[in-house]
Amino acid sequence: MHSEIFATLAALRQKQPVIHNITNQVVTNSTANALLAIGASPVMAHAPEEMADMVSIASALVINTGTPCETQRTSIRKAIKAAREQGKPWILDPVGAGATPYRLQLNSELLELQPAAIRGNASEILTLLTGEPTGRGVDTDSSSDDALNETLNYLQERASQLNTVLAVTGATDYIIDGQRVAKITNGHPMMAKVTGTGCTATAITGAFMASSEDPWLAVTASIACLGIAGEKAAFIAKGPGSLQMHLLDELYQLDAETIQARLSLEILC
């Protein structure tokens, strides 16, 4: 898979897609910088009045519900409507989907609007798909291994029904569509100590999806590349603060040789 993953990364860098992000207030700067480092061009626009225009210049739309409010809810709906009309993929990050009834309702509404991909931790994904809170919020009490091992058939069925790709991320990452499952064990525990690492994964997933005709491969490549970059960054970082800096550098420098040497990926089916 390493050659396919690098080819997808190379296509992204050649295309330099504009990615429109409606994201949370905590991660705007870090996700924008990660998109620039990987080779994309970020737009971080939230005003309802310009949603259709922003989507028209973008190649993909990323929706992150980490700090929801009614104004953002209006912007999200307008942006998704424009993306669907223009045939552009949109990606959902249901941050803390089960933390409050408001978040659960919002994310459930968005699920009905057919995201091309959904990335979250195990609790967020299971809450979104079942409509029943299964975790505290951004932090998860259900590992991605548990989510896959106990509910693989269910997750595959739901991915097929929704015509989407599920990225269940954690210590181990699983990328699931109706037919294929990839297991990725790249990454480093220190990444969990940096706010917004998961949000970064979702943002760059938008860039990969804008550059590939295979959504499952795009999501797989995105999660693998971030994990590899995180491993390398953690090796030289002294703590979470310097990890953020080195992660951007490693995303920028990621090449075919590094992917071949470090990729830890298994195709389960």
> Under the CATH scheme, which architecture would be assigned?
3-Layer(aba) Sandwich
Biggest pleated sheet: 9 strands, mixed
Mean pLDDT: 93
Extended strand count: 9
List the domain count as a whole number: 1
Portion of residues in beta strands equals 5-15%
Strand order of the largest sheet: 2-1-3-4-5-6-7-8-9
* Number of alpha- plus pi-helical segments: 11
Could you characterize what this model shows?
A hairpin with a 4-residue loop joins strand 6 and strand 7. The protein has helices at 2-15, 28-38, 51-57, 70-85, 101-111, 122-130, 144-162, 197-209, 215-236, 240-253, 256-262, and strands spanning 18-22, 41-43, 60-64, 90-93, 117-120, 165-168, 173-176, 181-184, 265-267. Helix content is 53%, strand content 13%. It is built from eleven helices and nine strands. The protein is globular and about 45 Å long. It has a single domain (2-267), classed as 3-Layer(aba) Sandwich (UDP-N-acetylmuramoyl-L-alanine:D-glutamate ligase), CATH 3.40.1190.20. With 269 residues, it is α/β, with parallel strands linked by helices. It has a nine-stranded mixed beta sheet, with helices on both faces. Helix 3 packs across helix 4 and helix 6 crosses helix 7 (144-162).
